[in-house]
């Protein structure tokens, strides 16, 4: 009887793994957007934490102040990556039925 229970657990784990793999693939199609400098720099990332697009308003391009532009790009990229991480965790959490967040120390999917 114990083998039956273990087999069921293994089947459930396999189904969860398959669902998580499917969601990881779908994350490539989900996008988040973040901006800095009041929208002067905008970054679009997908749910796999890949930067898809960077838009820079011409008004913020100043050859005399390149550091400000660099700071705005870094801020927008960091915000986009944080949103992408939250999106990935939320989507993965749906598969696990909330189990991921209840694990000791939380649970983060490597690379997400």
Looking at this protein, list some descriptive labels:
three-stranded antiparallel β-sheet, 3 helices, 112 residues, alpha+beta, Ybab, Chain: A
Can you describe this structure in just a few lines?
Helices cover about 55% and strands about 15% of the residues. With about 110 residues, the chain is an alpha+beta fold.
Descriptive notes:
There is one protein chain. With about 110 residues, this protein is an alpha+beta fold. It has a domain at about 30-60 and about 75-85: Ybab, Chain: A. Helices cover about 55% and strands about 15% of the residues. It has 3 helices and 3 strands. The protein has helices spanning about 1-25, 65-95, 100; strands at about 30-35, 40-45, 50-55. A 3-stranded antiparallel sheet has the order 1-2-3. Strand 2 and strand 3 (about 50-55) form a beta hairpin. Helix 1 packs antiparallel against helix 2. It is rod-shaped, with a radius of gyration of 20 Å. Residues about 100-105 have low confidence and may be disordered.
Give me the number of helical elements: 3
Q: Note poorly predicted spans.
A: 100-104
> Could you describe the largest sheet, including whether it forms a barrel?
3 strands, antiparallel
Give the CATH level 1 class of one domain: Alpha Beta
- One letter per element, helices H and strands E, the order comes to HEEEHH
């Amino acid at each position: 009887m114990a083998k039956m229970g273990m087999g069921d657990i293994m089947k459930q784990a396999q189904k969860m793994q398959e669902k998580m793999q499917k969601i990881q693939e779908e994350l490539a199609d989900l996008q988040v957007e973040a901006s800095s400098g009041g929208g002067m720099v905008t970054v679009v990332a997908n749910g796999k934490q890949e930067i898809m697009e960077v838009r820079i308003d011409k008004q913020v391009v100043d050859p005399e102040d390149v550091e400000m532009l660099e700071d705005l790009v870094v801020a927008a990229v960091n915000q986009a990556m944080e949103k992408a991480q939250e999106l990935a965790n939320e989507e993965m959490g749906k598969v696990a039925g909330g189990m991921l967040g209840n694990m000791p120390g939380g649970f983060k999917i490597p690379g997400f």
